[in-house]
Fold these 2 entries.
Entry 1:
Amino acid sequence: MATHYLAYDLGADSGRLILGTLDEGRLTLEEIHRFQNGPVKNTGALYWNLDGIFTELKAGLKKASACGKPIASLSTDSWGVDYALYDERGIIMPPVWCYRDGRTALGIENAQAKVDWPTTYAITGIQFMGFNTLYQIASEPADRLARARQILLIGDAVNHFSSGVARNEVSLASTTQLYDPRQRRWSDRLFAAVGLRENQFAPICASGTRLGPLKRSLSAECGLPSIEVIASCSHDTGAAVAAIPAASKNWAYLSSGTWSLMGVELPEPVISEQSRTLGFTNEIGYGHSVRLLKNIIGLWLVQECRRHWAREGHKFDFTELERMAASSAPFVSLINPDDARFMGPENMPGKIADFCRETGQPVPSTPGATMRCIYESLALFYRVTLRRLEKLTGRKIEVMHIVGGGSKDATLNQFAANAMKIPVLAGPTECAALGNILIQALALSHIPTLDAARNIVRDSCPVQTFNPTDADLWDSTAQRFNSLLG
């Protein structure tokens, strides 16, 4: 008998409500509702319209009700680090800041004056990124932070809206740089450093926690029965990794989207001076597994170029941009994707041109040349990151699983295989939604184990293999690329 689940999958550009159907060992997905998401810009500040995200959930739930299928449960996954403050009445205190807002310089200074960076990393195992929740909280005005009775991360705020139960699920909590993965709790020392009271962040719960039924008011408004609300993996990458169709031992993953997140799944965190220096992070996954990974700027580079070109009157779709990259001359110009200038929005082609000019390389003269530069640079940075992962873990990686929206990009997948010199298995594209739904099924005992869940993904979703070619050419270019890393 078929069982149906709902995954509310929130990304930084769009959100979807997806109906998952598990039937005789196969899982199918159907998009019920899609909407545009993104930070709102007002007087130079960037923040999220969380009320709008709640409204879109209700619109999706009404469509799900109209499908007439019995639904077992609902869960939300989202990007990491961002949060909402709630006052003593339980009302969200605006603004809900976007991590790309440039307000955190003072927060970094404030936090590091209390706890130095090596100590912070030793507690959390999270790589330094200026927008981590730790630094966002340290940027909050003291009086505003003092008024906050409760703090929830974005995906968990939506689960709270759905169920009325306030919990920060561990995969999302682990992105904050306020969580101690060894002690498996919030860090008292870091809370004190940024002026947080004990338990001001809502309690942490495990991946796959059953929160309770859909709120009566929401159930009545949307025409749904009182289905179960579950905290699956509230962090989209945690959910995606749970759904990777891995069958071998020595595999790594690359979740390819706005961000490229490359890592391995381990039983314990790797927290050392070497992992800190190399910029690796330890996030928590299903079953309290550890995702040792590197956050790499990803298709954000492409998205921002596309937005800039559209403002100039040249509207390219992603397929056209991929074709232009494939047909442009190879290895003309390269960038360091880890350079801080590429983190912010606005005129990405100009930033790429500036980097090439400053490093004595030809400046890309066409959108195709710019795209080729991005693709090759990302692939070569994947190679660097893979070698560092192997060094940290003492494991030789034999296959790379690329999942997420970027796994549809055959040109980038082939470049990645060429640069890393190992096979790339691309797909599925909807790994976050798949993982969200499979963890719901695990929580409800509809699936026995995570291995069984991954078997379902292998049986349900096509995967394309890209084998490496042109090894000598990519090896020689890698030497040139490494000189740009500093």
Note: The chain has a mean pLDDT of 96.
Entry 2:
Amino acid sequence: MNQSHLFFIFFGLVTYWVITIYEPFLMDIAIAILLALATVPAQNYFYKKLKNEILAISLLTILIAVLLFGPIIYFVVTISSVVANIDPNIIPQIIEKAATILEKMPKSLQFFDGAIRESIKEIKITAMSNNLLSIFGNIGAKSAIFIKDISLIIVFFFFTHLYGRKILQYLGENLPFDQDSAKTLFTDTSLIMSITTYSIIITAIFEGALFGAAMGFMGYDPILFGIMYGFASLIPVVGGVLMWLPVASYEFYLGNTQGAIFISLYTIIVISIIADTFIRPMIIDFVSKKIAKTAIKIHSIIIFFALVAGLSTNGFWGMIIGPAVTSLFLGMISVIGSLKSKNI
């Protein structure tokens, strides 16, 4: 057997075992690399100001942890605490309250009465109450796993920035890639990811702050609801509805019709129409020109489909993976175009 063939067989086996060993961490490593790639311009900015690479990377890591993962941890801890304190015995009371509301249903809606009552009868209260404890336990376990993943991502993010250039140099020297094309691909992908990542984060913070202010005015926890709306806004089209509709319905259930109307109109007009339709494109344009400092244009429809695809295939982390893969694809197209122009 040819020695080169034997080497590649051996290399394939070693690669398989490396992937097997590191499989539990591959997603965390991938997300950390993608975030590092998106924040290269920020690292360069901090380095110019501080003149110290480790200090610049440490500051950037802390900033990412606070801005991106701080709200997630706050949300997970708060929701876990709220869910753990829910009394399972309250479920029969809710169902009894629903039956009472049915008795006062207007005549125009009474054709729903039969179907709703049948649905209520089919609810097995005892089984649901017994399962609540296991549900709470699963929520706590998943929260712990989520926080563990976040911690690993932060660690990998730091070391990716610290040793990223050396790793890229090593790969460039040993892999059969044209150096100029590889550099162009890296630069374009990093800039495109910077635009998408910064735009997503700034928009989510802005819209979450608007919704949180309204919820604080109504007596709710503004930080919790602001975080929830910020993440919900990442889901195109229906994201905001997932937040304001349950709140409006609950206020209407309590008899606060004015509060229900206020939160509905405020979210639709101020956030969905003004902020999302008019201000979001301005944020993307601002990031493109001022932060990323590039002439590359990213249409908002591209970010839209990248988020939809990422969230539908990879869940929460898809908001990073979707735009990242799309950015890499666009960067490769840019490299192909530059190579074609050189050949011409």
Note: The first helix runs from residue 3 to 38.
